[in-house]
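Exercise 3.2. Students should predict the tertiary structure of the chain below and write it as C-alpha cells, then compare their answer with the key that follows.

Predict this chain's 3D structure.
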Amino acid sequence: MSYKVNNVNWRRETDYIEEIKEVRNKVFICEHRIPETEEFDNNDINCEHVLVRNEDDKAVATGRICENGKISRIAVLMKYRNTNAAQKVIQQLLSIAHRKGINQVTIDAELDNVSYFTNQGFKPVGGVYMETGLPKQTLSCSVNSFVCPHGILH
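Answer key:
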C-alpha cells in the first residue's frame, strides 16, 4: 500500500490538525479510553507532527516528536495496523530528528509494543511504569541507528 506523508506544523496547518485530532481521538480516546484532557496536552504546539494518508487521501496514522527527541502520540487506525503505516510515521519522525540535529530519541511504549521497538534498535531505559492505566516502558535509540536500508522497520 502506498502512503503520502506530510510534516505538520501545529501553529500553521490547521486543516491537518483536525485530521490528526480525528485519528488520535479514534485510537486513544475511543479505543484506549484515555481522557481527552490527557491526550491533547499543551505539548502539541511545541512538537512537529506527521500525518500519513492512504491512496484515497484519507488520514490513517499520525505521530509527533518534541524538541527533546521524545516521540509520542503514534496512532494508526485499526484497519491500517497490519500495513507499513506505523513504519512511515516512525521513519518520518526519525528523519525530522536527524534534520534537527537530535542524536537520541526516546519513546514511551506500551508493554505489548516493547519488542517491536527493541527489534528496531531501541533499548529499555528504567523500569516499567503505569500511565493512564497502561503499563509502559521508556525506550531510547540513537537516530544514527536508523540510517539503514528501506524496510528495516516493519
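Discussion points: The longest strand covers residues 123-131. Confidence is low (pLDDT under 50) at residues 147-154.
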